[in-house]
Amino acid sequence: MVHASAYKDPHHVMLFFEEISCPEDNKQCLTDRIGYYNDLKNNGKVVISGNFWNQDKNFVIVSVSDDNELVQIIENDPAVKQKVLELVKAMPF
């Protein structure tokens, strides 16, 4: 994971995820993931999320106060926990 430690103040990070297992077998996990990010959005932590058209990749832009919060968000992602998706890039800005 790319650490955003150069960013001492609250900042945004764009997270890119890629499928590593068949989502058809993990529909509940993906449903849980949608709920997870909706909850974060309601708490002001997710700016936007979506999928890349015709690709097995998606992205989430989160607003975090520090690296620890970023790591918590990623590690608590249901699809990451179930090894359905993996983080392939984190771009702080």
UniProtKB/TrEMBL annotation:
Entries under Pfam families matching the protein: YCII (PF03795)
SUPFAM superfamilies: Dimeric alpha+beta barrel
Domain YCII-related positions: 13-93
InterPro entries, A to Z: Dimeric_a/b-barrel (IPR011008), YCII (IPR005545)
Family (UniProt): Belongs to the YciI family.
Protein name per Swiss-Prot or TrEMBL: YciI family protein
Native organism: Mucilaginibacter angelicae
High-level lineage: Bacteria, Pseudomonadati, Bacteroidota, Sphingobacteriia, Sphingobacteriales
